[in-house]
Structure prediction request, 381 residues.
Amino acid sequence: MGKEINWGREKICSMKRKSWIWLVCLVLLGLAGLLLWGGKKSRNLNPASPADHYVEIGEQILSQERNYDKAMKEFANALAIEPDNPNANCEMGQVLIDQMNYRKAAFYLQKALEKRPDWEEALVFLGENCYEAKDYRSALRYFEKVNRLNPRNQDAVLDIGECYIALGQVELGESLIYQAMAIDRSYYSPYNELANLYFAQGKYEKAQTFYRQALERWPEYEDGLMGMANLQREKKQYAEAEKAYQQIIRQNPGFGKVYLALAELYLRQKQSAKAVATLEAGIRNVPFLRSAYYKLGVLREEEKQPARASQVYLALLKLCPEDGTAYYRLACLAAQQGNTGQALSMLQKAVFADKSLKEEILKEKLFAPYQDKPAFRRIWE
Prediction:
């Protein structure tokens, strides 16, 4: 899942179970029977249904072009014909998760479950939606339901483990990842999840062992390749890491996380111009790569270019109108320029979009002068 983790190992926008690249590979190999989700999308479509016809077109657009807007129009066409179509609702929800529009995603996924209450795929997406919104306990409930429906669903066990890790129960989460691994040792993902965990703990030798085991099972697996490159970066093998990151980009220009990792590498070497160019390339190739916008905007702020920073955040909000962090950064810029009214307006929008920002706002010294103002207090009502 796409947790907000420090740059080098962010799992942001492309979640492992719903990677469009993985779907393309499955189609090309003709291995539809090996789909790892319980939902098995292609088997849900009814060739005689006009609505499902539009869903199929949308799926093809996502897998072949990664054009979200174009795909969403097809899903909207399907819903115009059949508002309760579970496939269209599920697909729309999935795309909205990628766009971090969690409220709307939940609406569509719940609609899908109204028609098919025990549909594993929609339950997994709802769990991921909650996880991305940092509602880990609700996510856990959805993943546990999937696990009850299908105890051999490896991804559900993995997700449960990741929820426990996010909730601070690391040992329990780690043991669940090992349980998921035991279900099918040919599946790459549990090895990669353990590697990510050990990387975060600074246990680089263990992380390397598990990244290698993940790559033995899928040699082109970008997450595993990037994990190995991250290890090189942490060991200050910068030239080797840069080469590895660039190779991943050539292999898959749509793999967003690698741009973040490469930009971090350049920043560690005080090469800010290269970092900016890398982040801009990431945004061009992966328009919904939010962390690239955040980091690019902050770099512009550090360069004392508030107007250019604002442009970055506004560009993100044009794509994702409910991005709380973008509103928060705009509030910071407004406060720095002494524009109290604009800052308070942006803060209100930030909290409405993402309530988890409240604590950060209260800690930010820029907003300390506002705390006695009625408009500031109304933000929390």
The first helix runs from residue 20 to 29. DSSP finds 22 helices and no strands in the chain. Residues 1-102 form a domain with the Serine Threonine Protein Phosphatase 5, Tetratricopeptide repeat fold (CATH 1.25.40). The CA atoms of residues 232 and 348 lie 42 Å apart.
